[in-house]
Amino acid sequence: MATGDVELRDVTKRYGDVVAVDAVSLQIRDGEFFALLGPSGCGKTTTLRLVAGFEQPTRGEVRISGEVVNLVPPYKRNVNTVFQSYALFPHMNVQANIAFGLKMKGVESAEIERRVAEMLDMVKLHGYGKRRPSQLSGGEQQRVALARALVNHPAILLLDEPLAALDLKLRKQMQVELKELQREVGITFIYVTHDQGEALALSERMAVMHKGKILQVGTPTEIYERPNCRFVADFIGTTNFFVGAVTAAKPQAVGVQMPGGWLVHAKPNGLSAPTGQVTVAVRPEKICIAAQPSSALANAVQGVVEQALYLGTSTQYTVKLPGAATAVVYQQNVLNGTARAFVAGDKVFLSWQPESVLLFPSEAHPPVAETSRG
Question: Which residue in 205, 225, 171, 231 sits closest to 38, CA to CA?
Answer without folding.
Answer: 231
